[in-house]
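Complex 291.
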Amino acid sequence: MSSLVFLDPAYPAGRLADINAPQLPVTAQGVTRGDGVFESMLYTNQAVRKMEAHLARLAISAETCDLVIPDEHRWRSAIDTAVADFDADGGAEEAVVKLVVSRGSTDAEQALCWVTVSPAPQLGKDQRETGIDVLLLDRGYDSKIAERAPWLLMGAKTLSYAVNMAALRFAQKHGAQDVIFTSSDGVVLEGPTSTVLLAQRDGDTKRLITPMLETGILPGTTQSAIFDAAEQYGWELGYGPLRPEDLYNADGVWLVSSVRLLTPVHTIDAKPLRLDAELHAELSDLSDSIR
Ligand code: PLP
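Predicted structure with pyridoxal-5'-phosphate bound:
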């Protein structure tokens, strides 16, 4: 049902492995310290969406963490091998292609790199239709931290997602399905696994706004692709700083990511948000058009 391919110098197209068998040294620092980087991409209609953007971000994340990884060509070959194996085994309408890099057991060792392909979770697909309730949670850093403290690796997609997952569980225990992080100085940041988008309608003007990258958030490939498409359809584009009031006053708020796509937010901290049906339909079409 799921496929696994390791990037291995002895196998130019990648080495297929059994995803259900133990594969990693237990001392790999990706395992023991969450020291590594990753990407999650959507595979649908026989194609991996936005592969170029994901490979570019993987390279930047790796460089930020001083990890040396194989070149783009090697990743593409391993991805081809993995999706071919996945499809040969029955495939799925939507699948998640994950690229993972773990620092080796010692810093001198080569990083361990692999690709998995597995069916996309049903929950994300459902939430695209139903929308979600979200809590605003303090991430605990101020909005200027990224520049001041590069060792925090803000803006890199590292394997250290325990805090992000804990925030999601906290939301679920309190009756919501997702989270929007704010900085300690009250600026809107991002979701634990998604980028925030908001829309404003002003007469004939449609405006799409997302938090600014300088706050230390991950540069979202979905946000970027939706922005490119929206610009062609006459939307004005804007970048934060955004405050919670901006979300409450918007004509629509969405969480977007490669796997979840465009998910409308119904409430924040139990307060209902507006969702302009026309703007939502337009953005859904733009999101579906991403290749
Ligand atoms: N922000 C965070 C923290 C994420 O983990 C993700 C995706 O997993 C995103 C934003 C959205 O990024 P993308 O649209 O490239 O999937």
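Residues 112 and 202 are 50 Å apart (CA to CA).
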